[in-house]
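Hi everyone, sorry if this is the wrong subforum. Our group has a chain we'd like a structural model of before ordering constructs, and none of us has done structure prediction before. Sequence below.
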Amino acid sequence: MTELLNKLKVDPVTYVESLNSPIGVYLKEKVFQKIAGSEDCLKKELYEKTVSLQSADGSWNQLFVQTANSLWDLSLMGYDLKDPHVKKGLDWLLSIQKYDYGGLSGWIFHSNNRKESRTMRSTFYGEFVPGCTGFYETTYATHLFLAFGLGDIKPIKKTVKSYLQLWGDGNWVCGALCGSNVFRILVEHPLSRDTPQVENGIKFLTLQQTKNGSWVFHNQTLPFYHIFHALSRSKHTMARQQIKNAFPKILRYQNKDGSWGKSAQKKETLTFLTLDALKNIS
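Answer:
Right subforum, don't worry. Here is the predicted structure as tokens:
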């Protein structure tokens, strides 16, 4: 990580230290190995604020987006299944599963809340990009169960297997955004990451990568930072080569304060995706 950080035009540590958020806590602790007593206090404060907003049914306002983001925040800060709020949140996610996945043998997570699509598209946060609600919710939920050590439970394994069937020979399902989310899950889940489908997906991305390091599919630019981060989870040589090809763009797009992203809403997420990816490949 030190070698890669030294190649950046601006040291991002000052920006990271200014973040009083779950992402900030994670980056300080996991990427820069800096966690002081004041950060422990911040973590407790953020925890209390997060869980105070949890509804009695375990969700956050009966919305998948808010529930998933809150659970992701708790995982970033190191909370696990021993925490009752984490367990209640995951139980709510299980309660919104549907045994109907377009004719495939798998599970789909969907809250049926009419506000979901609007909330998803107005919230840019986390490792998944807003696309079709079914793909977004299902991939994000699968990721959370894996993050909390429940990636091998039956409903999650069924979902991953259905994605493998849907993915076929590495076809980019649905479109750029949904495909990015499905690819991320297949790359990170132990059941799928070493399969021919994932290898074909990585090969496909190799063909879509342009000279400037971006990925373009059917005249649609794939979400650069999310693909960069997803590929960092793979040890495949083709994935590492694509990361190498994309790194000059990472250098060009870094802000003067050491972050990535232009809008305030996107800065934290894009900086997380970049620095966590560099950690993954170090």
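For your construct planning: The beta strands are 97-98, 108-109, 216-217, 220-221. The longest strand covers residues 97-98.
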